[in-house]
Structure formats: structure tokens, C-alpha cells
Amino acid sequence: MAFNFQTFRTRAITAIVFVIVMLGGLLWNQWSFLLLFAMIHIGCWIEYRSLIAKIDNRYQHISPIHFYGAIAAGLGFMCWMTGDAYVIGDFVLSEIGFRILLIALTVLVLVKLIKGKMPDWKIIGYTVGGLLYISMSWGLLINLYHYFDGNVYEKGWLLPMLIIATIWINDTMAYLVGSFIGKTPFSPISPKKTWEGTVGGAILAVVVVTVAGVYWLELPWIQLLLITITSAVMGTLGDLLESKLKRMAGVKDSGNFMPGHGGFLDRFDSLLLAVPYAWLVLFLFG
Questions:
Q1: Running DSSP on this structure, what letter comes out for residue 150?
Q2: pLDDT band for position 77 (50/70/90)?
Q3: Of 22-26, 151-155, 202-206, highest mean pLDDT
Q4: How far apart are the first and last CA of the chain?
Q5: In angstroms, rounded to a whole number, what is the distance separating the alpha carbons of residues 156 and 145?
Q6: CA distances in angstroms from 190 to 2, 194, 215, 231, 245, listed in the order given
Q7: Closest-CA residue to 54 (of 280, 212, 265)
């Protein structure tokens, strides 16, 4: 994969703007964190529907209640995952989120029953897949915000930031290493990826984030290794999963909100798969 300076320049400028917006949402406070990923959640769902509709045209014709009900259920799940940390007056956001989740799922089921005909299980499967692929991932990321808050990680945003930093470094270094020395194709799903870039990017990401976490932030190195290795490996697989969806849909990008980077799913595909597994690893060994 030959190095293209113009492509790299466009990607770099867009990435700088993207990083500024992301850091603002990540670091300002817990509400900006939730708002940021609620917006990303909606953007991912819009693009997911578009991709699935290209794979199976019937999904383009799902009712607004079906589509927005799924988004509402996902947002409800995200709010539910906030725990007791988000309070509005006398209301705990997690309790409101749980009610929204139940109402949205109930409405979706009732709409199918009222129609009085056998449900299309394949269409339902696409929606369930979206809830697992998109909504569950962002909900668990919100949960991680306060997972170790007040403990060894001090700040709620630190744990999600470690996962995001690992993925960002992995993606960038894999691109650079693959551009300069990559020769061996990694997967037919993503022809531009090489084994040299993939392995090199993962090793650099794990080393940089782990060393910075241990010596700068004084975090436990075993947990850092678990987080970084899981994020790097599953992040790469997440990228391949989204590439497979795009190939099945016959499109180059899932959207175009970021020049040089594509859409929401293009930008967050690695994070979508890395978060649930990082959450699981921390739950089991944290």
C-alpha cells in the first residue's frame, strides 16, 4: 500500500478537528460525555439502517415506529447504564433510562402484534443486531465512565480514554507502518490492510498506552495490558466487521460526515467491538 501524502493530509486535518470535538465531550464533564455518545449513537444507527437496507431492501421500508423505537431503546439503555452518577433534581437518570428502554421495547412488540401477521424474523434480527452492535457498546462505554471512578483510575473519563487512545494509536500506526513497509495482505475483506501494519500498529499501541499509564499515570500494569491488548485486537476485528458490512452493501464508506474518514461507523467501528470485550475483561479480572 503506497503512501499517499494528499490522502494523509486530508485525514490528518479532519482528525485534528475530530479529536478536539471528542476531547471536549470526553473531558468536560459526565453530561458532555453522555451527550457526545448519545449523538454518535444516533449517527451510527442512521448509517446502520442505510447499510442494512442496501444489503436487504426490505429494511429500507421499516416503519418510523420501528426505526425510532430502536433508537429510543438504545438511548434508554445508555441512560440506564449511568448508574447513580447522573441525577436531575429528584430523578435518577438510570431509572428514567430503564423506563424508556422498557416502553420502547414494549411498543416495538405491540406494533408487531397489532399487525396480526407473522413477524419477519430476519428484519427483527437486523434490529436486534443493531441494538447489540451499536446500543450495547455505547451503553457499556457509558457504564465504564464510572466503573472505577474514585478508585485507582481517579477520573471517570480515564478508563474510556485508555480504550479510545489505544484504538486511535493502533489505527494511526497501522496505517503508517502498513504504508511504508506493508506487503502481506491481512484479509480479503479489507485489501489495503497488511499483516505488517496490523501487527506493528497493535504492538506500538499496547506499548505506548501501557508505558504512559504505568509511568505517567501510575496505573496497574497488568490491568493496562489487559485493556490495551483487548482493545487493539478487538478494535482490528471491529474494523473488519464493518468492512464486511460495507462490502455486502456495495459501498466504500458508511457515510460522509468526516472527509477522508467516512461516516460514524467508519470512525467508531473499532470502538464498537472493543468496548464490550474490554468491559467483559475488566468485569472478570478488574
A1: T
A2: very high
A3: 202-206
A4: 39
A5: 5
A6: 15, 9, 36, 19, 11
A7: 265
Question: Partners of 139 in the beta sheet?
Answer: none
Residue 12, all three cell numbers: 490528518
User: In degrees rounded to 5, what are phi and psi of residue 91?
Assistant: -105, 135
pLDDT at 226: 94
Q: Which helix (H) or strand (E) holds 92?
A: strand 91-92
123-150 average pLDDT score: 89
Residue 122 burial (C-beta neighbours within 10 Å; 0-12, 13-18, 19+): exposed
Cα-to-chain-centroid distance, residue 199: 21
Q: Within a 13 Å sphere around the CA of 124, how many CA atoms are in the beta-carbon half?
A: 10
Contact 190, 246 (CB under 8 A): no
Query: What is the C-alpha to C-alpha distance for residues 207 and 277, in angstroms, rounded to an integer?
Result: 19
To which residue does cell 460526515 refer? 257
Cβ–Cβ under 8 Å, residues 139 and 83: no
Q: What's the rounded Cα separation, in Å, for the pair 278 and 230?
A: 6
Is 226 within 8 Å of 30 (Cβ atoms)? no
Please name the helix (run of DSSP H) or strand (run of DSSP E) that holds residue 194, with its range, or none.
strand 190-194
State the pTM of this model. Answer: 0.90
Q: Tally Cβ neighbours within 10 Å of residue 249.
A: 16
Is residue 1 over pLDDT 50?
Answer: no
**What b/e readout covers 145-160, taking b as 16+ CB neighbours within 10 angstroms?**
bbbbbeeebeebbbbb
Q: Check if the beta carbon of residue 239 is closer than 8 Å to that of residue 261.
A: no
- Rounded to 5 degrees, what angle do the CA atoms 40, 75, 17 make? 15
